[in-house]
Amino acid sequence: HSTEVYIPLNINESPFNVGLPIELPEFTLSQVQELARQHGQNWSQSLVEQLMAMVGGHPYLVEQAFSHYQINSHDSLAQLLQAAATDAGIYANHLRHLWRILQQYPDLAEALGQVVEADSPVRLESLQAYKLHSMGLVKKQGNEVRLSCNLYRQYFREHLGELR
């Protein structure tokens, strides 16, 4: 005879902590140029630098840009970057997903707001820093964090105001 066990799970702990976490490093300028080449894009260093000024070397965001260009080769990088942090941009689904999570956790949204408005790294409560880092929104610098990329700064600067 078997019955299901209903154990309340702590949202701050994963029931799947059985392996070692693997953190992907950010792409470098030369790696982004190589990825562009692999996607059939002949981008100058200047174009790669413009993309990286918006999304840094964030592997998913960089890949999204090149995937977009494989389908929409008529779009310019300027068009992509202008709409990037909007609900009409190529990152809209990704940004909305992160925004929905933050709306469910106002304390996390407030912590992110501190980082968005800061020009230098910010010290947050350890668990908040961990969660924001796990979401990819911030990078750790010792005991402080800074925003991962300009895309997040632009998007969340506008949207976090809605919670106030």
Write the layout of secondary structure elements.
Elements: H1 29-38, H2 45-55, H3 59-71, H4 77-83, H5 92-104, H6 106-117, H7 126-134, E1 138-141, E2 144-147, H8 150-160
Antiparallel strand pairs: 1-2
How does this model look, in words?
- By secondary structure, this protein is mainly α.
- It has two domains: 29-83, no CATH class; 93-163, Orthogonal Bundle (Arc Repressor Mutant, subunit A), CATH 1.10.10.
- The protein has eight helices and two strands, in the order αααααααββα.
- A two-stranded antiparallel ribbon has the order 1-2.
- It is globular and about 45 Å long.
- The model has no long low-confidence stretch (mean pLDDT 89).
Task: Name some characteristics of this structure.
164 residues, 2 strands, mainly alpha, Arc Repressor Mutant, subunit A, single chain, 8 helices
CATH topology of the largest domain: Arc Repressor Mutant, subunit A
Shape: globular
List the domain count as a whole number. 2
Q: If you compute it from the alpha carbons, what radius of gyration comes out, rounded to the nearest whole angstrom?
A: 18 Å
Instruction: Give the quaternary arrangement of the chains.
Output: single chain
Structural class, judged by helices and strands? Answer: mainly alpha
Order of SSEs:
HHHHHHHEEH
Per CATH, the class of the largest domain reads: Mainly Alpha
Kindly report the average pLDDT value. 89
Q: Report the portion of residues in β strands.
A: under 5%
Helicity level: 40-55%
Number of distinct beta strands: 2
Low-confidence stretches: none
| Strand order in space, largest sheet | 1-2
Count, helices: 8
CATH architecture annotation of the largest domain: Orthogonal Bundle
The description of the largest β-sheet is:
2 strands, antiparallel
| Separation of the first and last Cα atoms | 53 Å
